[in-house]
Automatic annotation (TrEMBL), chain A:
Keyword annotations: Signal
Protein name: Thiosulfate oxidation carrier protein SoxY
Signal peptide: 1-26
Gene: soxY
Location of the Ig-like SoxY domain: 35-136
TrEMBL record, chain B:
Domain Sulphur oxidation protein SoxZ: 8-102
Record-given protein name: Thiosulfate oxidation carrier complex protein SoxZ
InterPro entries assigned: Ig-like_fold (IPR013783), Ig_E-set (IPR014756), SoxZ (IPR030995), SoxZ_dom (IPR014880)
Ranges that cross the membrane: none
NCBIfam families: SoxZ_true
Gene name as annotated: soxZ
Top-level lineage group: Bacteria
A Pfam family the protein falls into: SoxZ
Automatic annotation (TrEMBL), chain C:
Name by which UniProt lists this protein: SoxAX cytochrome complex subunit A
Cofactor binding summary note: Binds 2 heme groups per subunit.
Enzyme Commission numbers on file: 2.8.5.2
Main location (coarse class): periplasm
Annotated organism of origin: Roseinatronobacter bogoriensis subsp. barguzinensis
Binding locations of heme c 1: C102, C105, H106, C138
Gene for this chain: soxA
Residues the record marks as active site: C246 (cysteine persulfide intermediate)
Membrane spanning residue stretches: none
Length: 138, 108, 285
């Protein structure tokens, strides 16, 4: 059944979250992580994600990620139809391994960041962002 | 007139060796490819799929972007400025267009 | 912030449309300071004609989250400024059979300071015109160019640029004299129930501001922030488009952008914000 909430999610351009089975989402996230890490183990911690606890609109959610010592950070939205958001590569001219951007979230979900450290190890951070899907259209 | 327009913000001044915050924005719809038009036809994906920044010939940031990046993509990051040099910002569009902006930055 | 977030979350869980228990205040202590320099008042004494329906009038900015409010406090973070920057190019662009640009007649765009603040305004033929009407009149009559659509990109760009010139100036619409009859009609419309849900503007924005509706925070419906960059649409939303959205949400048949009814409503709604400064280009959810 297509609910009003689904329809609004589609309006956001991140369609049909509810139609993708949970297992498929989890596996898409795992696949994206494996592709990034080459199957190496990932430790928790060392990655900071700064995002609002509640986002007023899922179409533009401010987010900042930081992982000191990282050469690359993969950013995933675990509940979007496709989890990929961005991959940040920090070059020799970067002063920090930090970046901020604005992302689309199809609903309340975990935002996951995997950092590749200079020594080749991987670290993981995650936060839940609650997304208000409602409000009056303009 | 092109509707795609980059905006860059650098600090007014900095000393050699300072870490500065750089902000960039480019006007772009970031069409996800997941929407349909009024007649039910899929609207093809058209996004900025990559953004790079170089300073003094060195790579600062290279971002691969997916449709989950919001319209009018915004990027903020930190650069250590050891010398006066050029910033080169480049955005790559799905349609093959490349938008580039160069700005000189003076350190004292 | 934490307390407020929790309060909002609770209200959202209650989920009720216009629930009397889910009352959440705006952020009355927040101060809108743009670029650390320009103080924009977000609260004011209500105009007399409102007859005491509000203890104080509030900008819609006060009803938004910390993150959304912050976007309007920095001209780089505010994506609406992109539109104004494009508007600067359009201002200089000669077009039409007369090969004239806005700048050819009006000079620097700073000459537009105060224009947004008095819109909509009765023209020399006694018609009530919005800023868009004045722009299109210049295009068709002086430049020999095509009129722009109300919600078109070039119209958004140029109205954003012109509005920016009045930022910080108080709303100054004229509601007496020739404007009085239009204002009365707008006022009548404000209190008229529309749509299957039988809701008037006043039902939400006068009777229930500060409460939750559709998991969102109801403002007092002030128009001083328009044109606004809306995060949901990721573009500039003109006031008439917002009106359309409101009427659609009542499950009613809307008027078109630019319709006489909407220009009258624009005048009346603007007059409810007499005392608040123009914010355009604001940022909303």
């Amino acid at each position: 059944m297509l609910t009003r909430r689904d329809t609004m999610a589609m309006g956001l351009g991140v369609a049909a979250v509810a139609m993708v089975p949970g297992a498929a989402i989890a596996s898409a996230v795992d696949d994206a992580i494996s592709a990034f890490t080459g199957g190496a183990s990932v430790t928790d911690g060392g990655v900071t994600i700064d995002a609002p606890e509640i986002a007023e609109n899922g179409n533009t959610v401010p987010i900042a990620i930081e992982a000191p010592g990282a050469t690359e950070i993969l950013l995933l939205a675990a509940g979007n139809p496709t989890p990929g958001v961005a991959k940040f590569g920090f070059g020799e001219g970067a002063a920090t391994s930090r970046a901020a951007t604005r992302i689309r979230l199809g609903g309340t979900q975990d935002v996951v960041a995997i950092a590749k450290m200079a020594d080749g190890s991987f670290a993981r951070g995650a936060v839940e962002v609650k997304v208000t899907i409602g409000g009056c259209g303009g | 007139m092109s509707d795609v327009r980059p905006r860059i913000r650098l600090p007014r001044s900095a000393n050699a060796g300072d870490v500065i915050e750089v902000k960039t924005l480019i006007s772009h719809n970031m069409e996800t490819g997941l929407r349909r038009d009024g007649s039910g036809n899929e609207i093809p994906r058209q996004i900025i799929n990559r953004f790079t920044c170089e300073y003094a010939g060195k790579l600062v940031l290279d971002v691969t972007m997916e449709p989950a990046i919001s319209a009018n993509p915004y990027m903020e990051f930190d650069v250590k400025v050891d010398e006066s040099a050029d910033f080169v910002f480049t955005w790559y569009d799905d349609d093959g267009s490349v938008y580039s902006e160069t700005q000189s930055f003076e350190v004292s | 912030m934490k307390t407020m977030t929790k309060l909002w979350a609770t209200a959202a869980i209650c989920g009720a449309v216009l629930s009397s228990t889910a009352f959440a205040d705006p952020h009355p202590d927040a101060e809108l300071i743009i670029e650390g320099e320009l103080h924009i008042a977000t609260r004011a004494e209500p105009p007399e004609h409102l007859g005491g329906v509000f203890p104080e009038i509030y900008s819609g900015w006060l009803f938004r989250t910390d993150e959304t409010r912050a976007l309007q406090m920095d001209d780089f973070d505010n994506p609406g400024l992109l539109f104004a920057e494009r508007g600067e190019d359009r201002w200089e662009l000669a077009e039409g059979t007369a090969n004239q640009s806005c700048a050819d007649c009006h000079g620097d765009v700073e000459s537009m300071a105060g224009v947004r603040a008095v819109m909509p305004k009765v023209n020399e033929n006694g018609e009530l015109w919005s800023l868009q009407n004045y722009i299109n009149n210049c295009r068709t009559e002086r430049m020999g160019a095509d009129a722009w659509g109300w919600n078109s990109e070039p119209m958004k760009d140029v109205t954003s640029l012109i509005s920016l010139q009045s930022r910080g100036m108080p709303v100054a619409v004229k509601i007496d004299g020739e404007a009085a009859e239009f204002w009365e009609k707008g006022r009548e419309m404000y209190y008229t129930r529309f749509g299957q849900l039988e809701l008037s503007c006043a039902n939400c924005h006068e009777d229930n501001w500060g409460r939750m509706i559709r998991a969102d925070h109801l403002s007092q419906g002030m128009s001083n922030g328009f044109p606004t960059y809306r995060l949901k649409n990721a573009t500039i939303v003109p006031l008439h488009q917002r009106f359309r959205g409101c009427i659609r949400d009542t499950r009613g048949e809307s008027f078109a952008e630019g319709a006489q009814e909407f220009r009258e409503l624009e005048l009346y709604v603007s007059s409810r914000g007499l005392g608040l400064p123009i914010e355009g280009i604001s940022v909303r959810q």
